[in-house]
Structures are given as structure tokens and as C-alpha cells.
UniProtKB/TrEMBL annotation:
Protein name: IlaB
Top-rank lineage group of the source organism: Bacteria
Composition-biased stretches (Basic and acidic residues): 187-202
Residue ranges of domain ParB-like N-terminal in the record: 42-126
């Protein structure tokens, strides 16, 4: 036991490989732990630090504290969340310093969000020192599912030290189930559909809307890999179901709320984006002034449901009535354009008949 403690004390916790999601983007990542690792070591008063909101439900292990206090080896710096002065990693080392009568301790600061600080605390406590109990790891997984819903089960499992299917079961029981996104960020930082069947069906819709779209384009819009897009196209050409039996079973296990959420995501009509790309490649539009104006107007109006929600929130109260009136005028103008084009299409069909 003493040998293990000395080995632990001889090294600084390695945190540079841990990524947490960018709080503003939802898909981007920032090396939060790397920031903590690279921050300067400072000597801080122990009275200024707190150990609240720890992933350990039972608090510190007194025997472990006493063993650390008896070591003659210098203990590595603890990691502290600067905005709250809460200890992220090193609660036992802090207690050991108090037992020895030290009034100051060496600290590395982390400046990220509190939710990311908790994830970092779980990750570091799972990697070294006194391991978290199974109960604590499951509780941590439930909390991370709620605070980082876009993370995949495997990514959360890697942080908390559980199996991915255990995290999946926790996600299913979570009260935040209705708010879980349609896609997840994996351990490699890539965004993928949480339900593979959904991505395949969306790819099929895109291919039917624009058969000439490239596989890379389809894969990007459907949120699937190019290999999956290729398989979908092959199945479509052969007249086979786009979804495998295993994926159909997985889709059948989804809750009604989850299915409703996915339908709302699909209502964003990704096929329109493919059509817009196709129009942009048409020389008769791309190389004429009127065509350029039309393409610019279509791009400006091509906003998904989330985008419109952000726009609504950005309109100040004293301008809402004016913006609403202009939006109706724009909608009427688009409707007039659609009607006139429909009339021309109908006239052309009549003449051809």
C-alpha cells in the first residue's frame, strides 16, 4: 500500500489527453484538461479551498488521508476549479496537508465550466489514486448524461470507468431522456447519429431528392460515414430495405418521446440543402445576375428549426412587431414566386400535351 502511494505521489496527474465539449458549439471540443496541465503551479492557502460537489458520495477515506500524511515524498499539485476554488482532483492530498499542519498547498488551476470541472474530476479520480466506487461511477454517469447529452455512451463510459451498455441503460432511465439529441459525439470527436437507422433513412431521402449528389455530400448531410452512404445507395438501387433488421429492432425499442424528437429533427428537411447545392452548380443560374440573386436569397432563407429559434430569441421586444411584419411580407413574396413558377410549369405541361 505504501509503495503504491509513493508511486502515486511521485508523478503529477496526467490530464492532457482529456477533452470536454466546447460549451458554445455543441460539436467542437477544447482540451480542458490540457489547459489545467499547462497552467502554472501556484502556492495557495488551504483555507481558500473547498471540497464540495465531489464525485465521492462517502467523502474522503480517512485511512488514505493518514497514509498520505505520513509520506516524506512531496505530493503532486492538486487541480482546482478557479471560479469556485473547488478541488477537482486531490481532496485526499488537501486533507493530508491539513493533518500535517501545512497552511499552503501547490495548485494547478482549471478555468472551464462547472459541468466540465465535474467531468474532469471523475476522469482523474478514475485514473489514479483511490478509485471511485461502482455506485459513485454510476451516479457520475447519470450526471454526465444530463450535462453532456451529446456525448456517446462509449465516451462517457471511458470517463467514468463503466461499460458502454451500462451507460446506455443509465441514459434510458435518465429523466433527461426526452432531451437527448439525435446525434452523439464519440471518443474521436466525430458526430454520429445515435440511431443508425435514422441516418440511413435520411440518406435515402436525400438520394431520392437528388440522385446525382455525391456520396460524400450525402454522408455529410445525413451524419453518416461515406461507407454507410455507399451501402444505402447500393440497397436503394437493388430495391432492398435501407435499414438492417438489427437497426429496425433498435428503432422499435425507442420511446415515443424519442421518436417524436427525431421526427422534429427530420422536419428540418435536409433534402432542401441538397437541392440548393444542386441549383448552385447549374450554370444557367450561377452565371446570370438574376440567378445569383435567387441563389443568395435561397441561401439566406435556408435555416433549420434551431436556427430560426435562435433568430427569434435574438429579436429585441421593441422590434418584434416590425420584424414579424417584414417576415410576413417576405413569406408572401416567396409564395407569389412559387405560384408563378407553378403556373409556368402547368402551362408548359399543357402545351407539351
Amino acid at each position: 500500500m505504501i509503495g503504491r502511494l509513493k508511486a502515486h505521489a511521485a508523478r503529477t496527474p496526467e490530464v492532457s489527453g482529456f477533452d470536454v465539449p466546447g460549451r458554445g458549439s455543441g460539436t467542437g471540443t477544447s482540451s480542458a484538461a490540457g489547459a489545467a496541465q499547462s497552467s502554472a503551479i501556484e502556492c495557495v492557502s488551504v483555507a481558500a479551498l473547498t471540497t464540495s460537489d465531489t464525485p465521492r458520495s462517502g467523502g474522503e477515506d480517512e485511512e488514505h488521508v493518514q497514509l498520505l500524511a505520513t509520506l516524506q515524498t512531496r505530493l503532486p499539485p492538486i487541480v482546482v476549479h478557479r471560479p469556485t476554488m473547488r478541488v477537482i482532483d486531490g481532496a485526499h492530498r488537501l486533507r493530508a496537508a491539513v493533518v500535517r499542519g501545512d497552511d499552503r498547498i501547490m495548485v494547478r488551476y482549471f478555468d472551464g465550466a462547472e459541468a466540465d470541472a465535474f467531468v474532469l474530476a471523475v476522469r482523474l479520480n478514475s485514473e489514479h489514486g483511490l478509485p471511485l466506487s461502482l455506485t459513485d461511477r454510476k451516479a457520475a454517469a447519470a450526471r454526465i448524461v444530463a450535462s453532456h447529452p451529446q456525448w456517446s455512451d462509449r465516451r462517457i463510459a471511458e470517463v467514468v470507468g463503466l461499460a458502454a451498455n451500462t451507460v446506455g441503460a443509465i441514459r434510458q432511465r435518465s429523466t433527461a431522456q426526452n432531451e437527448q439529441p439525435n446525434a452523439s459525439i464519440g471518443r474521436d470527436g466525430r458526430m454520429r447519429p445515435r440511431n443508425g437507422a435514422e441516418g440511413r433513412l435520411r440518406a435515402g431521402e436525400l438520394m431520392r431528392a437528388n440522385p446525382d449528389a455525391s456520396l460524400r455530400e450525402i454522408a455529410r448531410l445525413a451524419g453518416i460515414s461515406a461507407a454507410t452512404a455507399s451501402d444505402v445507395r447500393a440497397r436503394l438501387n437493388r430495391g432492398e430495405p435501407l435499414v438492417t433488421p438489427q437497426q429496425q429492432q433498435a428503432g422499435a425499442r425507442e420511446s415515443p418521446a424519442g421518436s417524436a424528437a427525431r421526427r422534429s429533427v427530420r422536419s428540418g428537411c435536409p433534402a432542401s440543402e441538397v437541392l440548393l447545392v444542386s441549383l448552385s452548380k447549374d450554370p444557367s443560374l450561377r452565371l446570370t445576375m438574376a440567378g445569383k440573386i435567387l441563389l443568395r436569397a435561397l441561401r439566406a432563407s435556408s435555416v433549420d428549426a434551431d436556427g430560426w429559434s435562435r433568430i427569434v430569441d435574438a429579436v429585441p421586444p421593441h422590434r418584434q412587431e416590425v420584424v414579424a411584419r417584414l417576415a410576413r411580407e417576405c413569406a408572401n413574396a416567396w409564395q407569389l414566386l412559387a405560384d408563378r413558377l407553378a403556373e409556368r410549369t402547368s402551362e408548359g405541361s399543357t402545351e407539351a400535351g
